[in-house]
Amino acid sequence: MLDERDKVIIEMLTKDARTPFTEIAKVLGISETAVRKRVKALEEAGVIKQYTVVIDPSKLGYNLVSLTGVDTLPERIFEVANKLKEFDFVRRVYLTSGDHMIMTEVWAKNGEDLSDIISNKIGKIEGVTKVCPAIILEKFK
To answer: Are residues 80 and 123 in the same domain?
Structure first.
């Protein structure tokens, strides 16, 4: 069971995974050692699964980011999802219950690149029945 201190730790690390434990300790009014033990316990419990870096795709030359829905033949959904994971331009893959069976985050250099990805790569995977890209215009959070 998480207490308020654990929730503050999670919130601070979510905003910046490199937040020093000394800074968290000051906010919570506890020792750095206590913070370290709490973080370790959160990791061991699977609450904190990994630490990651948030990258600005445009700084790497990817000027289009698309949330792309992919529909498949029902018996091929896992096969298609696993194939999508292999592509470098696919940054995230989710099985969903919404409008599409699979949702992906696709990074493309430009419109031509995105069109090629949709038509000649994702669209050509055996079992894919529909590909629906939605270009992200602006990210607020």
So the answer is: yes
How many domains, in total, are found in the chain?
Answer: 2
Q: What was the pLDDT predicted at 65?
A: 97
Closest CA relative to residue 92, chosen from 77, 80, 102, 101:
102
34, 89: one domain: no
CA distances from 129 to 24, 101, 113, 126 (A): 49, 11, 21, 9
pTM of the complete model? 0.82
Give strand pairing partners of 132: 69
Contacts of 131 (CB under 8 A, 6+ apart): 68, 69, 70, 71, 118, 122, 123
- Answer yes or no: are the C-beta atoms of 65 and 57 closer than 8 Å: yes
Residues 38-72 have pLDDT tens digits of: 999 999 999 999 999 889 999 999 999 999 999 99
Checking if the pLDDT of 1 tops 90, the result is no
Residues 6+ apart with CB under 8 A from 85: 93
Based on the domain organization, do 63 and 105 belong to the same domain? yes
Indicate the SS3 state at residue 62: coil
d(CA 104, CA 128): 13
